[in-house]
Amino acid sequence: FPTRRSSDLACPTYQWLLGPDTAGTDLTGLEVCDLTFDHNIANNAITNGAEVLAWPEYSCGCFTGSDINLHDFEVINASSEQNIVVNGVGVTNVTIDNISCSAIGDDPNHVAHDSSFIYTHATDTTISNCDLSCASAGLPGGVTAIETHGTGQTVRDNTITNFQCGLNITGQSLLVAEDVLVNNNDISGAYIGILLWSLKYSTHITGYGIDGCEVTDNTIDLELENVSYPGQVGIGFEWNADLDINDILISGNTITHPLVAIPANDSTSNSGIGYVGGNNFVLSNCTIENNVITNFPNCGIRFECDLDTVDITGKDRKSTRLNS
To answer: Which class for 195: exposed (0-12), middle (13-18), buried (19 or more C-beta within 10 A)?
Structure first.
């Protein structure tokens, strides 16, 4: 594993620790397990954000193939753009299970950069039983724990600690994000728990970005106010979404804000469930039921977008409970 960066030609800044010869290499049937990926970030300080975008320092990457099985390994001492990356519209049938990480999200230079520890852009992906942890809350390279693109995404039974955003579930792909399940995840130390983001992508510029997503039985304990995040959101819709969203169930979630007094930098976007931003999409056929939302300084539930059939109680008449 690398101990020096691009200043030493014997060990240049790197693309990945384990990956294909080229992005077009077919890795059908790939299984990766029982390894420790140690990025040795203490001796591999990032120079700036542009560098890590050019050389993302993946732990493990796959861009072409099917039946990909990544399980039972750990990543330590990293501040990468992405660590577990499965990214290709032709990639199908992906399992990511029982991955752990620690000492993630910072480097000796404390460079801030976008990041998603697990990033998938594929069809029929299951991410489960992972234990993902940053060294502390709000680290400059510890942005998102899990980000998904594509249809047939399942994200369940994961434990996520101290990432700025726990889950970013997107409708940003050539395919509509259908049959999406986000269930029984435990998220703590985040500024945003679960984000649904429906955005135009390439030729997919009309219709729905997300059409069929269940967000159920998740536990979200948010971090204290931070100047970079004046508004915490438990389960939210990305502010710049621009493709319509349909058929959403948000049920059985417990969302807690650590409020003890109204913060000086409080924001109208500070809400347990909802959306605040430009009015650029329509949310239709959304059921919000049987959630427990506690201590939010502004709104328990707030939407500032076009709504078409949004039920805040649900068909079984179980109400969402708002606690102060």
So the answer is: buried
